[in-house]
Each structure stands twice: as structure tokens, then as C-alpha cells.
Amino acid sequence: MSKKPPTNRNVKLGSPRQRSEDEWHNGAEIEIGFYARALHRAARLLVENLDHSENPKTAWDVGPIISLYRQAVELQMKFLVGEGGRFLASPTDHITLFKTHSLRWLAQIVCQIIKAVQWEVEFKCAGISSIAEFSATISQLEEMEPVAAAIYAERTKKNLGDVPTQLAKANVLEMTLRLDGLLDLLAATADGLAATADLMELRDNNGGVRTIQ
Q1: Contact 54, 169 (CB under 8 A)
Q2: For residue 133, how many other CB atoms are within 10 A of its CB?
Q3: 114 in a domain, yes or no?
Q4: Rg for the chain (alpha carbons), in Å?
Q5: How many Cα atoms within 13 Å fall on the side-chain side of residue 20?
Q6: DSSP secondary structure string, 73-134?
Q7: Does residue 65 lie in a domain region?
Q8: How far apart are the C-alpha atoms of 114 and 106, rounded to whole Å?
Q9: What total number of domains does the chain contain?
Q10: How far is residue 149's CA from residue 142's CA, in Å, rounded to a whole number?
């Protein structure tokens, strides 16, 4: 999948807000970006070394994989919301953005931003062809959180040591393929939003119009 930021031939936006010095990452954007990529690399290493057989002794080895992907996706969505929130009438408070760990809530804000900049057509990657599929993937990832899934499984599983269906190795491996593309898409979209806002600010300062051709 191309990592080129989404573009729209005729994006008409509201006035972007100035970058605040008081952002959710307190200026540590580069460091957190490196950390998000490190989480992704660690997750891929675990996938590559995963015992793909349905061995009960290694059934829960998928837990750390999902945890790493989940945190990487959370950070990338926070970056996107931090950049794209300037295009919303009511940007997300930076303290709320820093403290939240709800993927579904972050995904809702991401969708609002994508619609605000009219990038619905461009916001897609392998396995995710629409905003609806993006939301469904995030919801599925939220349900795969290992501890919550294990607690629920204790009340429903039939055999000791069984993992819940959503954490079956085949399901986890299928999900990781989508998440690989999604992480690249989120990062590229955040970069595209930052570049668009900077260009619009420059045009405004020069008396131009807020339309990106």
C-alpha cells in the first residue's frame, strides 16, 4: 500500500486552528512517533515467530501481539486527531485526548475529521475500503483486548485453557494483516492533514482562498 498522504482534488475546509504549544504529547511528537513504529515492529516480530498450530500451550501467545498492535493504533489515531482536530468546529481537548484509551471513541473523531476534509474516498488500505470498514475494524480490535476477552471467556468457555473465538490464531493473523495497512494509512493521513493545514495557513496569510487544488 502506498504511504502517500491522501489528497483530494478539491478539498474545501473551514479555517484551521493554529498549532497549540500545549498539545497532548507535550512536544514529544517525534519520540512518540518512533515509539509507535517500535511497537509495530515488535508486533510483527512476534507474528513471524508465532506457533501457528492450534497448540493449547501456545494459544495465548497472541495476547501480546494484539496488545502491541492496539497501543500502536491508539497512538496513531491520537496523532491524526491532534492534527485533524483543527478542521472540526470543536477540537478535542488535549488533556482528554492524552488520557483516553478508548479506540472506539478515537475512531469516531477520526471519522468526523475524514468527513470534514472530504477524504472518504482516499481513506482506505488493504482490507479496509471505507470509513464503515475502518470503524468495524477498530471495534473488532477493541473486542480483542486480551484481558477483557479472557475475563469474558471465563464465563463462557467450555474447556480450561480455551481462548475466546476472537483470539483464535487464525482470526488474529487475519487482523494483523489489516492493521499493518491501517497503521500506515493513519500515519500518512496525519501527515496529509498537517501539510494541508500548513498550506491553508500560508494561503490565508497571503490573502488566498481555502481551496486545495
Answers
A1: yes
A2: 16
A3: yes
A4: 19
A5: 16
A6: HHHHHHHHHHHHGGGSSSPPPHHHHHH---HHHHHHHHHHHHHHTT-TTT--BTTB-SHHHH
A7: yes
A8: 12
A9: 1
A10: 10
For the stretch 151-190, pLDDT in tens is 766 555 555 567 888 899 999 999 999 999 999 999 999 9
CA torsion sign for 149, 153, 155, 160 is negative
Helix, strand and coil in the chain, % to nearest 5: 65, 5, 35
Question: Across-strand partners of 128?
Answer: 125
**Residues of the domain holding 65:** 25-208
Beta-carbon neighbour count of residue 182 at 10 Å?
A: 27
Average pLDDT, the chain: 83
* Cα distance between residue 129 and residue 132, in whole Å: 8
Task: State how far the Cα of 209 lies from the Cα of 206, in Å rounded to an integer.
Answer: 9
CA–CA separation, 40 vs 102, rounded Å? 19
26: cell is 507535550
Taking alpha carbons only, the member of 55, 18, 52 closest to residue 202 is 18
Which one-letter amino acid corresponds to residue 95? I
Residue reference for cell 496529509:
192
Residue 35 · residue 64 · CB < 8 Å: no
Domain presence at residue 20: no
Q: Is residue 39 part of a domain?
A: yes
Facing residues of 11 across strands? 212
Rounded to two decimals, the pTM is: 0.82
